[in-house]
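Incident log, support desk, overnight shift.

02:14 A customer reports that sequence design results differ from what the structure should imply. Their input is reproduced verbatim below. On-call engineer (initials T.W.) acknowledged and began investigating.
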């Protein structure tokens, strides 16, 4: 049966994959070349995935994997970059286990022009396959998600090692140039990459316009790799002290993440059909059936998404006491089935992902009784293998204190308030409004003012 025409979207929130397909095609072609020229035994967790799928008891699992790649390959005639089979996917995935995310640009009249980055290298392989109906069947399987968790943890170990710093070695110009595609790879601390990261940081807060990378982020320009210990250490780079002032006032909610607002939804149900096309929030699922969930029936959910080039640490939106903090081992590449056959399904599935993705849930009892118990949820998108909380139950925290961080991948988050807590917004202060084309609101800045509703 012929595949339907793929949906075409130009909005790729957060910049986790390039909008220009030629960058992704180059990346996959390069992976294929590496796998072909330097074949290596599969690392242990990938071999375990292969053994599980090829077990004679898992015939349906094996068929769904193969159909996922077969069906998605109908979307292009360019055979040299399509991932055509489960076996080929495993070989390419194996190469990624020793590969750090890369920064790319292409020539232009005004100097190197950013083309996007491969911040989601595994997502680049699965971009179309996971958005097919067969991809839904594959990534809704708990056994497969557990194995991908092991694979992502294996990759995380590399990204937290000194071996991942090769993409941080300073160079003025491109370190790899492809004459065929005109796409070049640059060091993450090159002037070209620094310029874009500074642009993202100062777009959120124009008061810092004119500052350099080392004036915005903690680093050591005189040290090798700018003083970063690993790719993950760079990804989690911190702002200079005082660069993001903390919003004051007991009735003011501080922005927990440097993120773009996606939506603000009121009167959210305790339980709802989160899998349907409209993707309503289902609080009992978002909160993993925690006993506190019932207190939020009819409450309000705010969701925002993070940029690939932004700050990836979370901060407490209020002062209060941590009542619970836990990790939910959910899915990694599952998309809403109603946005299948679309390469940007992860972006269009963000509300759905809050109920199914790997995530951290933190309940905080605010010192302000008008706010009372609230909830922060950090959810990984695609290869976020590690959402790390740094707070514990019973701990008292001040507004702006660290809550945790996203390691090496794309992400979204929610603030959830109980019924009766009204929220005045300040979007115009940041020249943005909720939606897929929103821009970042500075972390720790005022995002809501609370008031009591009738």
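02:41 Re-run completed on a clean worker. Output:
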């Amino acid at each position: 049966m012929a595949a339907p025409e793929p949906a075409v979207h130009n909005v790729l929130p957060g910049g986790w994959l390039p909008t220009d397909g030629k960058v992704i095609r180059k990346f996959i072609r390069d992976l294929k070349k590496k796998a072909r020229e330097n074949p290596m035994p599969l690392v242990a967790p990938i071999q375990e995935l292969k053994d599980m799928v090829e077990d004679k008891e898992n015939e349906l699992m094996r068929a769904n994997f193969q159909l996922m790649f077969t069906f998605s390959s109908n979307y292009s005639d360019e055979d040299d970059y399509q991932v055509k089979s489960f076996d080929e996917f495993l070989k390419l995935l194996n190469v990624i286990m020793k590969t750090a995310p890369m920064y790319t640009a292409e020539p232009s009249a005004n100097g190197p022009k950013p083309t996007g980055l491969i911040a989601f290298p595994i997502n680049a392989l699965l971009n179309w396959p996971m958005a097919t109906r067969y991809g839904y069947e594959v990534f809704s399987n708990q056994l497969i998600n557990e194995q991908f968790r092991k694979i992502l943890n294996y990759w995380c170990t590399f990204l937290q090692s000194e071996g991942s710093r090769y993409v941080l070695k300073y160079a003025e110009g491109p370190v790899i140039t492809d004459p065929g595609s005109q796409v070049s790879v640059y060091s993450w601390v090159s002037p070209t990459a620094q310029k874009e990261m500074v642009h993202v940081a100062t777009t959120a807060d124009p008061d810092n316009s004119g500052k350099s990378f080392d004036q915005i982020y903690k680093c050591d320009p005189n040290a090798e790799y700018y003083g970063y210990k690993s790719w993950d250490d760079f990804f989690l780079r911190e702002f200079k002290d005082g660069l993001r002032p903390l919003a004051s006032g007991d009735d003011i909610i501080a922005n927990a993440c440097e993120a773009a607002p996606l939506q603000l939804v009121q009167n959210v149900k305790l339980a709802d059909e989160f899998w349907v096309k409209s993707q309503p929030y289902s609080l009992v699922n978002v909160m993993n059936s925690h006993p506190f969930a019932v207190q939020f029936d009819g409450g309000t959910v705010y969701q925002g998404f993070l940029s690939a080039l932004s700050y990836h640490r979370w901060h407490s939106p209020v002062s209060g006491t941590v009542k619970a903090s836990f990790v939910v081992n959910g899915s990694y590449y599952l998309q809403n089935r109603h946005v299948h056959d679309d390469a940007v399904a992860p972006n269009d599935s963000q509300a759905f992902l809050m109920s199914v993705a790997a995530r951290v849930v933190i309940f905080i009892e605010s010192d302000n009784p008008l706010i009372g118990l609230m909830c922060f949820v950090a959810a990984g998108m695609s290869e976020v293998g590690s959402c790390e909380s740094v707070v514990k139950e019973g701990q008292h925290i001040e507004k702006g204190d660290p809550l945790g961080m996203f390691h090496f991948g794309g992400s979204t988050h929610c603030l959830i308030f109980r019924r009766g807590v009204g929220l005045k917004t300040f979007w115009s202060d940041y020249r943005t409004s909720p939606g897929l084309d929103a821009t970042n609101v500075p972390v720790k800045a005022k995002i809501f003012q609370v008031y009591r509703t009738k």
